[in-house]
From TrEMBL:
Protein name: Methylenetetrahydrofolate reductase
InterPro entries on file: FAD-linked_oxidoreductase-like
Record keywords: Oxidoreductase
Length: 308
């Protein structure tokens, strides 16, 4: 099975088969305040109802995050801001963030994760601690997502296993069974379908029934993709990119995730109970480029209706 497809952009858009089109319905996408500022009109770019995650990078003022959420919500998009535990000082700060998002932008969903910093800024170091505060439940949040790592996470499991990550997911599964909020796992991106399939099937076999929103890296230059993959701690599939980068003729060609999507879509079509519920795009090559790619493959466009 080919892992990646590198090719020059054709003069005509490439269309996807029915399995991929179905698989991509209701996709979500991620932005940051500084990247969102570059988008003139999200309504012309994304299908109506597309869930937009807002990544909270260390150093980004909460005011910028809330302003971005307010803009997207006003355009009719469900907004899911990140709550990175390690950059939240204390429970008072968390309550303030929740109140701002809810009061100014009507936000009622959140992605909770540990965050990409080594040392916590305050009382929290894990998403589980955020959930345990009860603040999201008290505020009436309807949807809570948590992070997943198909290729493991060396920050959490330095020995290269996935013991701690798996234990955390079992805890989150148990938490989901005692909350009214809809929960799901939003994952880090990866570049090969088979290991993702094996990971999702193992979760299901272990009784972790949370639906998976699989992370997919959108179209980007190979150099850009490698930079982000290293920064995000992507696992074995990074070696595939590095090997490709050694071929100068392939280094200059754009990456598009056609093969990994096709592999996942085919498996989902053949196994309707497979745990992947939606695709979540990381627009590493730009929001516009990613949205145009996703819409083309999904057979949708800006102002169309997204499935949920």
């Amino acid at each position: 099975m080919a892992l990646l497809k590198f090719r020059r952009k054709d003069s005509e858009p490439r269309t996807a088969g029915p399995e991929v089109r179905d698989f991509l319905q209701g996709y979500s996408i991620e932005v940051m305040p500084r990247t969102a500022e570059k988008v003139e009109d999200f309504k012309a770019l994304l299908p109506q109802g597309t869930r937009v995650y807002i990544a909270h990078i260390e150093g980004t003022p909460i005011e910028d995050m809330v302003a971005t959420a307010k803009r997207l919500a006003a355009d009719g998009f469900p907004v899911m801001p990140h709550f990175p535990a390690r950059i939240i000082k204390d429970k008072t700060t968390l309550a303030d963030w929740i109140a701002r998002y809810q009061g100014e932008a009507g936000v009622d969903q959140a992605l909770m994760l540990a965050g990409g910093v080594t040392e916590p800024h305050g009382d929290f170091h894990s998403s589980m601690q955020l959930l345990e505060t009860g603040l999201f439940d008290k505020a009436g949040f309807k949807r809570l997502h948590v992070a997943g790592h198909p290729e493991g996470n060396k920050d959490i499991d330095p020995d290269g296993s996935d013991a701690n990550v798996s234990e955390a997911l079992r805890w989150k599964q148990a938490f989901s069974e005692r909350t009214d909020a809809q929960m799901a796992i939003a994952t880090q991106f990866a570049f090969e379908a088979d290991p993702i399939i094996a990971w999702v099937e193992r979760l299901q076999a272990e009784g972790i029934a949370l639906p998976v929103h699989i992370g997919i890296a959108g179209p980007a230059k190979l150099q850009t993709l490698i930079k982000f993959a290293i920064a995000c701690g992507v696992g074995p599939s990074l070696k595939v990119l590095q090997k490709r980068a050694m071929d100068v003729t392939k280094l200059v060609l754009p990456y598009e995730p056609d093969d990994v999507l096709a592999g996942l879509a085919a498996h989902k079509a053949a196994n309707p109970g497979f745990g992947i519920e939606q695709v979540h795009f990381f627009p590493l090559g730009g929001i516009k480029t990613c949205a145009e790619y996703a819409n083309n493959r999904a057979g949708t466009n800006g102002a169309a209706t997204a499935a949920h």
